[in-house]
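Example for tutorial group B:
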């Protein structure tokens, strides 16, 4: 069985959790507190970041985008019309472009700073950056998310799913990052009904169910977090 080293509120880890669930892959989940810098984990991924996938045929696959490619290379053909990275080369470029948009741009501008400030810092020792959150980071991230929602709405007004007519890694990456922000109650869903309806479709999928079970100690999710009709 595969092993996934992750953190419940690492958006990159959530992307892979959604992906393996869509593929019907069973994996043991091991929570990794990256700020602890465990030697055994650093041996799997010297960058010290989650997620990391371990399987029988390979010692470790580090990073969400590398894992996504690995999963497609090892399982993609067998998935047929459920393949998350399409066979057509041009379509693959668009999926990869959007995965990069959400894992890099949205991650850096919205989900990663909010998760770090509101969740990780609650549990990190002071000598490695723990402490009270920085309100300036909140303001920047909550401002940035607005144009990302507009971009999602723009894409869905032209397509059934973000990258085309079929669910793909692009949808799962975007939804994974949004789900972390949604838990914190920082997604202004009223600003774009089309983006909200797309997210409702994604989070209604069975692959999302285990994410709804995640909780931060001492911090309840937003009222709409697990609401499929929000």
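The residue assignment follows.
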């Amino acid at each position: 069985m595969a092993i996934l080293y992750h953190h419940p509120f690492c958006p990159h880890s959530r992307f892979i959790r959604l992906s393996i669930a869509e593929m019907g892959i069973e994996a043991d989940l091991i929570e990794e507190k990256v700020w602890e810098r465990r030697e055994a984990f650093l041996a799997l991924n010297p960058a010290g970041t989650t997620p990391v996938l371990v399987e029988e045929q390979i010692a470790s696959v580090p990073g969400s985008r590398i894992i996504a490619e690995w999963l497609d290379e090892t399982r993609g053909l067998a998935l047929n019309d459920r393949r998350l990275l399409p066979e057509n080369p041009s379509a693959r470029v668009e999926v990869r472009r959007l995965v990069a948009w959400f894992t890099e741009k949205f991650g850096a501008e919205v989900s990663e700073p909010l998760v770090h400030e509101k969740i990780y810092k609650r549990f990190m020792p002071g000598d490695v950056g723990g402490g009270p959150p920085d309100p300036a980071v909140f303001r920047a991230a909550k401002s940035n998310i607005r144009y990302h929602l507009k971009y999602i709405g723009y894409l869905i007004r032209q397509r059934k799913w973000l990258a085309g007519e079929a669910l793909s890694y692009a949808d799962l990456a975007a939804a994974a990052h949004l789900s972390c922000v949604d838990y914190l109650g920082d997604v202004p869903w009223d600003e774009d009904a089309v983006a909200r309806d797309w997210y409702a479709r994604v989070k209604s999928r069975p692959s999302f169910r285990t994410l709804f079970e995640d909780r931060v100690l001492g911090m309840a999710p937003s009222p709409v977090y697990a609401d499929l009709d929000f």
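The chain has a mean pLDDT of 96. Compare this with the pattern of hydrophobic and polar residues in the output above.
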